[in-house]
TrEMBL record:
Protein name (record): DUF6212 domain-containing protein
Domain of life: Bacteria
Organism in which the protein naturally occurs: Mycoplana ramosa
Length: 392
């Protein structure tokens, strides 16, 4: 009986030793494969073989009747399908005919049309852009199955960026489009170029290449805006000992903006209920004092659980200078009439349930004369593991 047990243990030990030996062999083979792969990349670069080549281009064209789509980028988005296979795509370029000198940012997301799965996202401050071709690179050229790539572009800031359109084309599929109709997008594509390289290989660096801010493999990214109907229901949740003689918090429907006027003491605040959707990972908006003689103010944003009391959340912030653990606080930023600011909240993980958005302002000097703080360009991004709407 003992001999049988020892025989079984012996066989198990030999089997374990065999598995360990095979695993070591597999590790060595994997290391050899990776070394060969790196050597192949080095060989391509050392011999100056063309690592990236332009395979498609739409040149910019300015029609005298164009209104410009800058405002469309600020209030919605513009989408463009790339008329090439995704296989080997290493980057693309967008043409801008004008770039504001004030603060703001352009957001470009690349995804697969068929599944809605994200590839990468670029969030680029205006200061890094040029009024010409701007090149957006991927860390490695697209591999896998050949699919259709879709660009989605939006912008945030007090002034609009001049995204160029190309010459009119015959078909709708590869025309630029938006959720809001616009006459300039009638059978017009964006002005863009597409570059390809070896699938899975890192493209050689080129001048003015803009690297992605986020890689989105395996994620479905949805860029969404605050609905006007929800914003019109903004509630005044200010915490201040002063009773103002004017309305400090209100929604400007024609500008899709919120005014939150600070008072000499306390915090002026407006809450929009349940507008932050589950899965949201980032929030951004632009703020400016909307009067040439307006005194500066401080602005901030708070994302609070939908079942909380927004006024008590503001009171907590006023009392302790910090938000409750269940909320997300952007921190205070000073804003003036001369210089708009962009405020961003980037979350470490997606929110699990709906949240309220609270817009806050406070005085930074003794005077708040004409301090009409206007917040606009609200942009939220959410992610999920399920496919998004993939229609064009």
């Amino acid at each position: 009986m003992r001999k049988g047990r020892e025989g079984g243990v012996g066989r198990l030990a030999r089997y374990s030793a065999s598995i360990t030996s095979e695993l070591a062999i597999l590790r060595r083979e994997r290391e050899t494969l990776l070394e060969s792969y790196r050597a192949l990349e080095d060989a391509f670069q050392a011999r100056n073989w063309e690592p990236v080549s332009e395979i498609f281009s739409h040149d910019p064209y300015a029609d005298p009747k164009d209104e410009g789509i800058g405002q469309l980028l600020a209030t919605a988005f513009v989408e463009q399908l790339l008329p090439v296979s995704s296989l080997g795509v290493a980057g693309f370029a967008l043409h801008l005919h004008s770039v504001p000198k004030v603060s703001g940012e352009l957001t470009v997301a690349l995804s697969y049309l068929e599944s809605g799965e994200g590839v990468a996202e670029w969030v680029v401050p205006y200061a890094q852009l040029v009024a010409n071709w701007n090149f957006f690179s991927l860390p490695r050229a697209c591999g896998g199955a050949a699919r259709t790539l879709r660009l989605r572009i939006s912008a945030a800031g007090p002034e609009t960026v001049g995204l160029s359109l190309g010459y009119p084309i015959a078909g709708e599929r590869y025309s630029a489009r938006s959720e809001i109709p616009h006459p300039d997008l009638d059978l017009r594509p964006l002005a863009f170029r597409v570059f390809t390289g070896l699938p899975g290989v890192k493209p050689v660096s080129a001048p003015n290449m803009i690297a992605p801010s986020n890689l989105l493999e395996g994620q479905y990214i949805v860029d969404y805006r605050l609905a006007a109907e929800a914003m019109s229901q903004i509630a005044d949740v200010s915490v201040t000992p002063i009773v103002p003689e004017f309305q400090t918090v209100r929604f400007l429907e024609h500008e899709h903006a919120v005014v939150c006027h600070p008072l000499p003491a306390g915090i002026s605040a407006g809450a929009i209920s349940r507008v932050v959707e589950p899965g949201t990972i980032s929030f951004s908006a632009s703020a400016v004092i909307d009067h040439p003689e307006g005194q500066p103010a401080a602005v901030s944003f708070l994302l609070a659980p939908a079942n909380s009391n927004a006024r008590s959340e503001v009171a907590e912030l006023a009392r302790k200078g910090a938000a409750k653990p269940s909320a997300f606080f952007s921190g205070w930023r000073e804003v003036s009439a001369q210089q708009a600011v962009s405020i961003n909240i980037q979350l470490e993980e997606p929110v699990r349930g709906p949240m309220d958005l609270v817009i806050l302002s406070r005085a930074v000097t003794e005077s708040v004369d004409f301090s009409w703080l206007k917040v606009s360009g609200f942009r939220l991004v959410k992610q999920s593991s399920e496919g998004a709407d993939v229609g064009h």
